[in-house]
Every structure is written in C-alpha cells, then in structure tokens.
Amino acid sequence: MDADVIIVGGGPGGASAAYHMAQAGIDVAVLDRASFPRDKVCGDGLTPAAVAELVHMGIDFSSWAHNQGLHVIGGGHSLYFDWPDQMTRPNFGLARPRMQLDATLIEKAQRAGARLYENHNVFEAVQDSLGRVVGVKARVGRGAGAREVSASARLVVDAGGVAGRLSTSLGIEKKINRPLGVAARTYFKSPRADYGWMESHLELWSGKPGESELLPGYGWIFPLGDGLVNVGLGSVSSTANATQIPYKQVFGQWVANLPEEWGFTPENQVGPLRSAALPMAFNRKPHYSCGFAVVGDAGGMVSPFNGEGIAPAMKAGRILAQAAAEALIRTSRVSFDRAMLVYPHELVNEYGGYYSLGRVFVKLIENPQIMRICTNYGLPRRRLMKLVNKLLSDGYERKGGDADDRLIATLATLVRKV
Asked: Which residues face 157 on adjacent strands?
C-alpha cells in the first residue's frame, strides 16, 4: 500500500483529494474502515457550491434530484428564494443519499487511478525520529482473524470524519471555542419526494409551538426523488459543548405538526432517526504540518451558517491536491513543507473570514429572542433575504460579483482570523 500520498477516509473530502491527485499523476492510496457503499448521517442536500465541485470532478448528476432554491418557513411566513446564478456556481442544487454519493465519488477517484483499500481501520500514524509523519498502521478484518498492515507515504491525509482519530493521536485536538452542531435525520416515503425546493423550517420549539422556547437550529425536508425525502433537524452551540436538546422528542413533535398528506408517519419511515456531530469553523488545526494534512470534518470544515460540510470538504480536497502536486516534485523536506503550506493558506483565504462571520452568527442565534426577531421581521424583507441567502449558503463570489457579493466579501476580509 506504499504510495506518494495515503488518504485515510473515502468520504467527499478524501475522494475529492484522491481524484484530483490521481488526475495530476500522483500515486495515491485511500484507506477506509468500511466498504462501499456505506451510509453516513447527513441532510443529503447539495448546494450550488457543492455542485460546482462535482463539476470539477466530472460527475454525471443528470439523473439526480434537482432543486431550484430554498423554501423557507418561519414566523408565519412561507417564502421562496432561488439559488443565485453566479460566475463560479450554478443556479441549482442537488440532493443525493450519502450512501450513493460517496460511492459515486470514490469510484470516480478509482477510475482516475487512485487505489482504494476497504475494511482498513487505520489506528496509528507512523512517525520518524524527528516526529514527521511517514506512514500509517491499519487493522484489516475483525476479531481473532484481524491482522496489522503498514504503509509509507510522503504525505498522509486525515479525511476520517468528525472523530479525527488520526489527528487526535498526533495531539491535534479540537478547539473548544469553535461552534459545534448536531444533526439528526431519517427518511420517509412521501409524495414530497419530487418537490423542487430544499425546505427549511426555522422554528424548532422546546415544547408546544408558539408557547415554548425557540431553539437555536432548524428543521429540513430535502426531496431525494424516487419516493423518498430526507427529514431532519439541526442545532448548534457557539462552543464545543453540544446543545442539550431531546432530539427524538423535538423531532417527533415537529413532524407531527406537519401536513398529514406529506406522509411523515411511522409506517412511512425508512430507517431510524440517527444523529451526528458537525465540527465547524476550523475547530481542528493546523491543517498541515510535517507531512500530515487534515481535510473535511476531521479539520472542522463544516459551515457554521448552515451545517454544510460536503462542499467545503470537496473544495479543500481539490486545494490539497494542487498543493501536493507542487510539493511532491520537491527534493527536500523543507521545500516540500514550504509548498504544502499553500494548502492552509488557501483555506484561510477561502473560508477564514467567512467562518469568523459564522461564529458571530451562531452566537447571535443562540439567543432565543434574537432568533425570534430575525425570523419574524427579517424573512418578509426580500431584499435583505437575497443577501442573507447568499451568506447562509456560501453562495457569494469571493471576487467580483454584485453589490451583495462585494459586501459579504468585504465583511469576511475585515473579520478574517487564522
């Protein structure tokens, strides 16, 4: 399994990095502890930013469920916001179950030349006498029949998800002052499966709707086609202390209040309600050091604005591949590391200020009164919501664009933090 680059984890971030590296002629091996297809807890929604990354990978998504924007419900309002038509992003989104999405992405990486090793549970990074990461150790199989294998590489990438086990084993701990979200979702058979909008319900109540505390979070209904919808809710805390919400209770009450004809009933439910943590705003750093890089959820790349992790992970994978291609032609470790520092530098340029704005946003919506004011008085102002839609969905142009794009980009530059 020796390679130029070893990527631990074959999710969207790992698959994107593997694809773009293989396209650049890099010998890359992906080790995943599961076998594909395998499921992940996710909303399954793909914003235009994610669609743009699929285009970079040459993915054929013509048969996937398409959506034209957001249908936002809250404060007695029901409003529709089209995805903006941007220079770098299309004016439509997609939805795809993660079991199918991840399998498609890793297969694309394999076709480009990446090697996939399934059922390889990486448990340790191998370091040399100077502390540089030079490989990994993994267990193959389970129980008495399990065996240990090892592999070496000039670059090791942790794309192993929220736990960041490989990063943690190297002492790269998560930052407790960064937002942490929690999402729970399940699937329903429903006539809403072909609805052409991603639907967001901005009011989650701790008890009876309209008479209890408004919780910091939102509910979603994302149509997947083929008779299926992804229904879930998410909540967020401004620190690593996850919000203490009885998810099953809140989810059950919210779903029970939705229109009966949508069919969100126990007999139509497909699979259990499952939850997962959402590490946000670069809560684990550095993203590169001494032959070791971090991408996706392992590096806390989930957006604090909307809980989206797929688009940032895939873009980070593409940026990482570009840096690796330059670094691997260098003959000394010092020069290699200098080239690899392009990766964290570009991540800060792309998301540093945006995520800093997101941290402010999370602190605001933690206050139920502010959340209520925003929902009741902000939603009806369509001009304001056009800007907010771009902000929350990472739909703004970093350079150029219209007045809204320039305003968001300016604010992100002003608050940018490493």
From this structure: 7, 293
CB 29 within 8 A of CB 190: no
In angstroms, the CA 294 to CA 298 distance is 6
Burial letters 100-128, b for 16+ CB under 10 A, else e = ebbbbbbbbbbebbbbbbeebbbebbebe
Q: 273 and 186 in contact (C-beta within 8 Å)?
A: yes
Kindly write down the DSSP assignment for every residue of 108-130, as one continuous string. Answer: HHHHHT-EEETTEEEEEEEE-TT
* 380: its two tokens: 């009806």
Record the pTM: 0.94
CB atoms within 10 A of CB 11: 29
State whether the Cα torsion 251-252-253-257 is positive or negative: positive
At 145-169, the pLDDT tens digits run 889 999 999 999 999 998 889 999 9
Q: Is the distance from CB of 94 to CB of 50 less than 8 angstroms?
A: yes
Distance CA 296, CA 309 (A): 7
Phi, psi of 55 (to 5 degrees): -65, -40
- pLDDT digit string (tens) for 297-328? 999 999 999 899 999 999 999 999 999 999 99
Q: How far apart are the C-alpha atoms of 346 and 388, rounded to whole Å?
A: 25
The Cα 215–Cα 67 span in angstroms is: 27
Q: How far apart are CA 286 and CA 84, in angstroms?
A: 33
Task: Write down the CATH superfamily of domain 2-66+95-175+281-360.
Answer: FAD/NAD(P)-binding domain (3.50.50.60)
Query: What residue type is assigned to position 224 of the chain?
Result: L
Instruction: Kindly give the pairing relationship between strand 292-294 and strand 65-67.
Output: unpaired
Peptide linkage before 246 cis (omega within 30 of 0):
no
The Cα angle at residue 176 between residues 171 and 180, in degrees rounded to 5? 115
